[in-house]
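Exercise 7. Given the encoded structure of a 216-residue chain, write a plausible sequence.
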């Protein structure tokens, strides 16, 4: 286990800050390591899972039993240890995670609160949509982020994706829900439509789109 030993200046003056930073550099086992090794440790500590962008009310209990496995304990607390660690590693959780965005309003709120530097650090997002298959012969409309595709995936949604200036990959996660019992579930018509939608998305945003389809 790597122990962090850091010192905090009693005053907030610039000289105190410089002295504290230099002292940390000399005394901390982590900060004495070469930058390449520190980077590997940062990645191991900060980049272990994806981030889900969800809507949680401010008075919601962080560890309520109804949350299941969702826990809102900060996963990046090591960035608060000292300024040097923050300056070296703040972008890693943004760059190496895929941001799973379930609802369109959540994405909009998230991007509005992020700084330009934070948005530029994001490389990958996952969008979830659900397709309800109502009958054996009729496909219902595609539902995206809990609202209809053509109503939700509008210019505002594209503007949000465009604001992620260094975005490289979009993962389109499609869940097909069959609303009836059949021995063989028709899939080819749905697959063609999903491919078409993914193509439209890729042409409009100009990013690589990966598709994952799940049946229910």
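Solution.
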């Amino acid at each position: 286990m790597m122990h962090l030993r850091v010192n905090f200046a009693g005053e907030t003056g610039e000289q105190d800050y410089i002295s504290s930073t230099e002292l940390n550099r000399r005394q901390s086992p982590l900060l004495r390591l070469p930058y390449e090794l520190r980077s590997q440790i940062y990645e191991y500590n900060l980049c272990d899972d994806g981030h889900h962008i969800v809507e949680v009310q401010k008075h919601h209990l962080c560890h309520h039993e109804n949350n299941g496995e969702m826990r809102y304990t900060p996963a990046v607390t090591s960035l608060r240890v000292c300024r040097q660690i923050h300056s070296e590693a703040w972008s890693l959780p943004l760059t190496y995670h895929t941001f799973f965005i379930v609802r369109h309003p959540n994405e909009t709120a998230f991007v509005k609160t992020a700084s330009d530097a934070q948005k530029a650090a994001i490389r990958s997002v996952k969008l979830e949509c659900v397709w309800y298959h109502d009958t054996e012969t009729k496909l219902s409309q595609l539902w995206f982020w809990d609202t209809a595709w053509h109503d939700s995936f509008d210019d505002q949604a594209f503007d949000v994706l465009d604001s992620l200036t260094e975005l490289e990959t979009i993962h389109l996660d499609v869940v097909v829900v069959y609303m009836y019992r059949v021995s063989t579930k028709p899939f080819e018509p749905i697959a063609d439509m999903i491919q078409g939608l993914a193509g439209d998305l890729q042409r409009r945003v100009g990013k690589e789109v990966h598709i994952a389809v799940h049946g229910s």
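Remark. Strands lie at 51-53, 98-101, 124-133, 142-144, 147-148, 169-178, 208-215. Students should compare their own answers with the one above.
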